[in-house]
Amino acid sequence: MILDGKEKSKKIRSWVKQEVEQIQQPIKLLVILVGNDPASQIYVASKEKACHEVGIDTQTWRFDANITQKELIGRIRQANEDNTVHAILVQLPLPTHLDEKQVINEIHPWKDVDGLTIANQGKLLNQMKGIVPATPLGVMHLIDEYKLDLNGKNAVVIGRSALVGKPLALLLLQRNATVTIAHSKTTNLKEIIKQSDVVVSAVGRGHFITADMIKQGAIVIDVGITRVFGKIMGDVDYQNCLDIVSYITPVPGGVGPMTIATLLENVVECYKNQL
Prior knowledge:
Elements: H1 5-23, E1 28-34, H2 38-54, E2 57-63, H3 69-81, E3 87-90, H4 100-104, H5 118-125, H6 134-145, E4 154-158, H7 165-174, E5 178-182, H8 189-194, E6 198-201, E7 219-222, E8 226-228, E9 231-233, H9 238-241, E10 247-248, H10 255-273
Parallel strand pairs: 1-2, 1-3, 4-5, 4-6, 6-7, 7-10
Antiparallel strand pairs: 8-9
Helix pairs in contact: 1-10, 2-10, 6-7, 6-10
């Protein structure tokens, strides 16, 4: 069965729109964009568009790529103190001369819409209420939508980023899955995937996972997205895996729409944090 992220994301967007209408006062997301990376500009534009569709105000601060660490941190602190700004997002990656971790951790945890501050990551680790990164939370919403039971399942998460791999592994653990985190240095990756009931891939390499690597009846969540010769594809060879899996996300139309919808949900949560 196909895990339809488009349909589930519509439900979340509808909920967010209703929440925003009931609040009856402006809710604002501030996006901080440093440099002129084309992919980052596309991502920011899509976030602005999605916010507009559900009634969330957005503002984007654009800075030259040569901005200093001190100046960028000063602007984040300014946004922290601004009561009209309810959520702050620093678009990653940042230019290499900037310390991403230090920059992110200058965001007030209540306004940390990406859930990347140490405070929010610590809450996730300790199963406390906080802001969870949008992609992992979106994956869990999709799992809940289709009532997939993870209890006792062997799960592998391929990718160990703070934005996807690590938080998703923790969320799967909370559902009593037995979780393996694999990455570029993992030696027996094919064997690990073949033994897994749940496979989550966030590698960003087109058709990195082939049908012969998938266990019969596995649940496959494809977080990766790659453009090859103008064609969008995921980490998983989707067409050839369809007859093997029990559930699978398409690319596009799977995790992508869920990420944007859950980001909108997080903006509302950030607003509620500040009441």
